[in-house]
């Protein structure tokens, strides 16, 4: 297009000379062109685009439309994005001798592309579709001067890329990662988090039986995320460096300013990782000669430029790094290589290191959190302080869940206390406790679990932190029930705290209440001491009715507690020679309530009605029926369900649905999966008895008194065709 025409049309269309500048950039950037002049032209273009990007960052993103950014649109329309990609990649596309591109030119090309991505999702998706360009960007990360711009652009691109990138395709990935200093490694974790995380199914779908079955069908071969996890675990020294990053201390110059307020103010402006890191890069430029692995940052603290930055900004910078590192470690702990990761985290003393940071950094202040709960996606919109606490709690949950390394959350004195509890109760110590390497446990006056309990009790009633705190503590108790673990927590007032939250605090958050119900169930299961403490706290009919109201208000949330009470009652009723147990059975309002068959049937009917929402509800229903079967009462329970159907004028509806869900249960649990072991450990009922009970219930012989089919009139039978074929 003639330049005269571009200038004339551009004046009316307000193109601000962008097409003309792009034409000159193209000419100067050709193989025989002048890259110095090309850079001059790019510097003219850059402010036109960066101003739009900055307005996007500082204004409400949700209300921003691409039409609001005409310069970015014009730049892309006239081929600016494709031209910059071509300029960057040209050295890799020709073997001819070519002039060396300066670092500054590369940085400016990357910055312009990033600004375009900020303002136009279409640009980001276009770049993401070019796998050759994405892989090429990783090679630019070897240059420290261009690392920051490269990392930020990659992060944006991977965020919209439809197919997950294969890390093994990155040239010399191990060498690349090993070349990073600690700051670069922390930034690289932002990229890794996208490449090793499974796509989120959504909060509501994760626990449904259908979703679990669909997930299991995909588990036949490793996903790309799982392959990527193995790839990074095989990089020498990678996990050790992450542990050092997660546990290093922040250099803290004392200041009188309000830390939290300053942190929130800075975060409002520094919502963009590139802006934050660019400022910190400027501030640390004079200290590049210092050790990249320095943990106390004493040399950096002496830099005059660094001292111009608010103290809270240094802290938020470190916190944002740790959020990314903890997220990556958390994902790895939940992956197929979990045992390998556990061994490495224990060896590199991650837990003792976090324990030493707890009071000084992790929970140095109580932060109000009225946010909704955050899922596994690390890209939430909360402040760094809140993100950091949530990722820390999620890490503890993943670390403790069904793993013997959970005892590393205690210090040596607390480990000795567990041994003493077992000795006093005349029961053997659990094998995991005996095998714990005490040199890898927490040091100091308190272990990490005890510190967590302390702050948990101080949280406001509806704080979303309570949800994650309760989940972390519950994970310590999950698995095979340990009397010593329960008593350790009972002695620290945990049961009374939970009951206060449920009954007396006025807590309305369903998520918090659910986490407390689950924790209470694990704390009380099979433990006569816990039921005695419960009875002492819930000592009036009014309190007991309040407690029941909370349970009944959402059985989906409280079903795990109901399951634990039914299991405990079943065990206690078999211990009639123990006077303590007999007294408790007669005195405890909770046990007396669940001992009545009509109350169990009420729970069973409601649980079967809501099973579609939650796999846990199905298993709780089965526990009630297994206990009934063991006592020879299964036919009477099924008759009661049939009578309830007719009373509700929906004959066959409930039992047909239950029959179908039990078929799904078989498909899900009869595959080789840890879920079956979890069921057995948590219920103390052999998995063979679970399978037998389901088979009995699904028997098609209408003469069987324990088969669901016997209680559905032929006119209302809706057994699926697949079952009939079988």
UniProtKB/TrEMBL annotation:
GO CC, one annotated term: Cul4A-RING E3 ubiquitin ligase complex
One Gene Ontology MF term: phosphatase binding
Domain of life: Eukaryota
Magnesium found in the keyword field: no
Gene Ontology biological process terms, A to Z: ubiquitin-dependent protein catabolic process
Keywords: Receptor
Entries under InterPro entries matching the protein: TRPC4AP (IPR022162)
Name this protein carries in UniProt: Short transient receptor potential channel 4-associated protein-like
């Amino acid at each position: 297009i003639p330049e005269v025409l571009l200038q004339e049309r551009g004046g009316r269309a307000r193109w601000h000379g962008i097409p003309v500048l792009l034409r000159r950039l193209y000419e100067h950037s050709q193989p025989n062109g002048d890259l110095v002049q090309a850079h001059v032209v790019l510097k003219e273009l850059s402010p036109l685009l960066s101003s739009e990007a900055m307005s996007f960052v500082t204004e409400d993103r949700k209300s921003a439309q691409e039409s609001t950014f005409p310069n970015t649109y014009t730049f892309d329309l006239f081929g600016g994005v494709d031209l910059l990609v071509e300029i960057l990649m040209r050295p890799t596309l020709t073997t001819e001798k070519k002039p060396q591109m300066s670092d500054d030119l590369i940085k400016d090309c990357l910055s312009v592309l990033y600004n375009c991505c900020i303002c136009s999702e279409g640009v980001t998706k276009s770049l993401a579709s070019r796998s050759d360009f994405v892989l090429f960007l990783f090679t630019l990360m070897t240059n420290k001067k261009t690392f920051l711009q490269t990392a930020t652009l990659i992060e944006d691109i991977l965020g919209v890329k439809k197919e997950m990138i294969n890390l093994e395709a990155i040239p010399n990935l191990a060498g690349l990662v090993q070349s990073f200093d600690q700051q670069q490694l922390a930034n690289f974790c932002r990229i890794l988090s996208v490449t090793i995380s499974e796509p989120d199914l959504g909060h509501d779908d994760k626990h449904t039986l259908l979703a679990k079955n669909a997930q299991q069908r995909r588990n036949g071969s490793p996903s790309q995320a799982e392959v990527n996890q193995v790839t990074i675990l095989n990089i020498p020294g990678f996990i050790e460096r992450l542990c050092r990053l997660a546990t290093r201390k922040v250099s803290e110059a004392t200041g009188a300013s309000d830390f939290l307020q300053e942190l929130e103010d800075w975060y409002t402006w520094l919502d963009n990782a590139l802006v934050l890191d660019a400022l910190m890069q400027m501030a640390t430029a004079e200290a590049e000669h210092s050790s990249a692995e320095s943990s106390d940052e004493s040399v950096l603290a002496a830099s005059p430029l660094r001292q111009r930055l608010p103290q809270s900004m240094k802290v938020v910078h470190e916190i944002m790094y740790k959020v990314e590192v903890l997220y990556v470690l958390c994902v790895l702990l939940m992956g197929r290589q979990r045992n390998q990761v556990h061994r490495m985290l224990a060896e590199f003393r991650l837990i003792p290191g976090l324990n030493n940071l707890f009071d000084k950094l992790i929970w140095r202040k109580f932060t109000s959190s009225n946010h909704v709960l955050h899922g596994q996606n690390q890209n939430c919109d909360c402040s760094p302080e809140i993100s950091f606490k949530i990722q820390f709690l999620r890490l503890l949950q993943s670390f403790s869940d069904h793993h013997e390394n959970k005892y590393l959350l205690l210090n040596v004195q607390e480990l000795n206390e567990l041994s003493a509890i077992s000795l006093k109760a005349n029961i053997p110590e659990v094998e995991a406790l005996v095998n714990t390497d005490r040199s890898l446990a927490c040091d100091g006056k308190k272990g990490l679990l005890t510190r967590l309990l302390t702050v948990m009790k101080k949280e406001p009633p509806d704080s979303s932190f309570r949800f994650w705190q309760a989940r972390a503590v519950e994970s310590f108790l999950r698995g095979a029930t340990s009397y010593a673990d329960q008593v350790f927590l009972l002695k620290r007032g945990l049961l009374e705290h939970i009951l206060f939250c449920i009954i007396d605090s006025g807590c309305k958050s369903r998520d918090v209440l659910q986490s407390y119900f689950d924790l209470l169930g694990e704390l009380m299961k099979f433990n006569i001491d816990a039921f005695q403490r419960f009875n002492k706290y819930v000592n009036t009919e009014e309190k007991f009715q309040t407690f029941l109201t909370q349970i009944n208000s959402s059985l989906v949330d409280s079903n795990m507690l109901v399951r634990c009470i039914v299991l405990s009652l079943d065990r206690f009723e078999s211990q009639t020679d123990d006077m303590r147990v007999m007294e408790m059975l007669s005195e405890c309002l909770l046990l007396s309530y669940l001992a009545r068959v009509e109350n169990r049937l009420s729970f069973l009917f409601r649980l079967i009605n809501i099973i579609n929402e939650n796999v846990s509800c199905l298993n709780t229903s089965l526990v009630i029926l297994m206990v009934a079967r063991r006592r020879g009462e299964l036919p009477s329970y099924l008759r009661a369900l049939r009578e309830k159907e007719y009373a509700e004028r929906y004959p066959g509806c409930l039992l047909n649905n239950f029959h179908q869900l039990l078929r799904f249960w078989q498909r899900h649990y009869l595959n080789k999966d840890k879920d079956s072991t979890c069921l057995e450990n948590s219920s103390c009922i052999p998995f063979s008895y679970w399978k037998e009970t389901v088979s009995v219930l699904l028997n098609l012989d209408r003469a069987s008194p324990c088969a669901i089919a016997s209680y559905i009139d032929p006119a209302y039978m809706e057994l699926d065709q697949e079952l009939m074929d079988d």
